[in-house]
Amino acid sequence: MAKSGPLKVLHLINTLSAGGAELHLLTLCRHQKRLGLEVTVACLREQVRDSRSLRPDFEQAGIRVIDLRARSRYNWQFLARTPLLLRRERFDLLHTHLPRADLAGLAAKLIAPEITWVCSVHGMYKSWSGNRILFLFSRVWGRADAMIAVSHAVKDWLEQERCLPPEKVAVIRYGIEPAHFSPAKARQRKRNGSAVIGSLGRLEYRKGHHILIEAMPLILRQEPRARLLIAGHDPEGYGRTLKDVIRQLGLREQVALAGFQRDVPGFLKSIDVFAFASLSEGFGQVLIEAMAAGRPVVATRIPPLTEIVRDGETGLLADMNDPHAFAQGIIRLLRNPEKAEQLGKAGMRRVQRFFSAERMSRETFRLYKRVLDQ
């Protein structure tokens, strides 16, 4: 990679709404700046309902943000704007995140083949609303100079089900700044002595929140003072369905939908056990956040969550879509505080060792250099 001056990278993502992929990008960009890269972020639109835009966070970190103003799903002008932007500002590399942004990467590559394009695949999209055209994305991603799979599970899916060449797919797992979630820095909320189970993720079916609600009657038989807090924004109104389940099970006093959380470390510090019953994930960033905060975790026994949690060592795993299994794991932790503390500390050490933002950013930079030198 022979060039003078800093490497100029344009990241393109669907929105700047505070979600897993967007928060990942914010952390990545902050650390790329520390490595000396000149980083710009472009988004198709800033925000989705019931969340907040991360634009102020990017700008506070000194990262320029460009809004391509594709407010509607029927607005495709960004496909032409992206290659024009790349050429006008002479970026060295385009890095796209999420499917609509990946389409712009393909458009840029077709219009300007000299552009170096890396795309991050953040999920397996098995339950994606656009899965009827998923076969097209195999061709889209295949035109990239390199793909980043955010877990080994995503890499296996790309190779085995999407038939993409293994040599094009690099696994670079999400990383966070563990100190940001350190129990010493998290805000402690006052509790009334009840055992608090927490979960965090946008309100949608595949996040499995209903499984935790269905587990609560089983938990309450042995831990009658237990409470469940489910936090997350509600972009599609799925919260109404969860409220129906809460009402049908007579759990209005024991289960609450806590809404979007601006203070995630504070939320994590306020709970005793973190439960994550997701049915499908590309990685599961919130799980490493909870572990970094020292919370003992119970998570679904599915890839890629099995890449994060070592069952019985850094947390507990429960079978997918099984309220009874989640209830057993949660009760075990609530009734054995020493074991819960042991798992929480082991989880913290695992995140510090394997899931740091510094590791993620350096691996990404090495990939950039490799594709630019090809």
* Name of the CATH first level of the largest domain: Alpha Beta
Could you give the order of the helices and strands? Answer: EHEHEHEHEHEHEEHEHEHEHEHEHHH
Number of helices: 14
Uncertain runs are: 186-191
Count of distinct structural domains: 2
Shape: globular
Rg result: 21 Å
Main pleated-sheet profile: 7 strands, parallel
What CATH architecture of the largest domain would you give?
A: 3-Layer(aba) Sandwich
Structural class category: alpha/beta
* Gap from first CA to last CA: 9 Å
Question: Average pLDDT value?
Answer: 93
Beta-strand content = 15-25%
According to DSSP, the number of beta strands is 13
Main sheet: which strands, in order across? 3-2-1-4-5-6-7
CATH topology of the largest domain: Rossmann fold
**CATH homology superfamily name of the largest domain:** Glycogen Phosphorylase B
Write out key terms for the chains shown.
Rossmann fold; 41% helix; 14 helices; 374 residues; 2 domains; seven-stranded parallel sheet; globular; 13 strands; alpha/beta; single chain; six-stranded parallel sheet
Description:
There is one protein chain. With about 375 residues, the protein is an alpha/beta fold. The protein has two domains: about 10-175 and about 355-374, Rossmann fold (3-Layer(aba) Sandwich); about 180-355, Glycogen Phosphorylase B (Rossmann fold, 3-Layer(aba) Sandwich). The chain has helices at about 20-35, 55-60, 80-90, 100-110, 135-140, 150-160, 210-220, 240-250, 265-270, 285-290, 305-310, 325-335, 335-355, 355-374; strands spanning about 10-15, 40-45, 65, 95, 115-120, 145-150, 170, 195-200, 225-230, 255-260, 275, 295-300, 315-320. The protein has a seven-stranded parallel sheet, with helices on both faces. The chain starts with 7 loop residues before the first strand and ends with a helix.
